[in-house]
Amino acid sequence: MNYKLPKLLYKYSDLEPFFDTKTMEIHHTKHHQNYINNTNLILKKNNIKILKINELISNLDNLLIPISQKTLLRNNAGGHANHSFFWKILKKNTKPNNIILNILKDEFSNFENFKKIFEEKALKFFGSGWIWLVKKQNSLKIVTTVNQDNPLMLLNNQKESLGYPLIGLDLWEHAYYLKYQNNRNLYIQSFWNVLNWDKVLQIFLNK
Ligand code: MN3
Description:
The chain is mostly helical. It folds into two domains: 20-88, Orthogonal Bundle (Helix Hairpins); 98-206, Iron/manganese superoxide dismutase, C-terminal domain (minor pseudopilin epsh fold, 3-Layer(bab) Sandwich), CATH 3.55.40. Helices cover 48% and strands 11% of the residues. The protein has eight helices and three strands, in the order H-H-H-H-H-E-E-E-H-H-H. The protein has helices spanning 21-45, 53-58, 67-88, 98-108, 111-124, 177-180, 184-191, 197-206, and strands at residues 129-136, 139-146, 164-170. It has a three-stranded antiparallel β-sheet with strand order 2-1-3, sandwiched between helices. The chain starts with 20 loop residues before the first helix and ends with a helix. The protein binds manganese (III) ion (MN3). The site of manganese (III) ion has 7 residues, from helix 1. The site of manganese (III) ion (MN3) has 7 residues, from helix 1.
């Protein structure tokens, strides 16, 4: 058994003009595939059995493998988990319903303020990584992770994970450079047009 590239439930062109076709295609078939290939190789080399990807990344600290292998696995399995999640929460033209609006209001005063804090934090984040909205013990938080780390990871003897992801946005340049070049800001703004709020609600209700 190996990890495989998940099929998208939409076409690469379906998120135009916000996320362009070429970027979507390269991001999915090259970048994501590469994380999967590397993960499979590392698991094989270290005789680790395949778990659900979220289970694997939640339990990295328990693996008895050399630290260099663990770092490689963290980066690549993290990349697989993050991108698998990312594709699922993308769809054009959805809106947050009242349930989502109310929970965001509880935490961030109102929807516009939530977007503002998320955008500012994403823009200020230095280098490559991800920004997330996570659910943790019935509260919501905006957090960032470096490289391909995921909020579910428990690393470096952390006692608790950052929380369960409801929203994630890829802040690596490969996610936007073809269309937006150095304008990370425009990319972040465009995200609101392709974020699938129906899926976010579904994840929230199931967690
Ligand atoms: Mn990416």
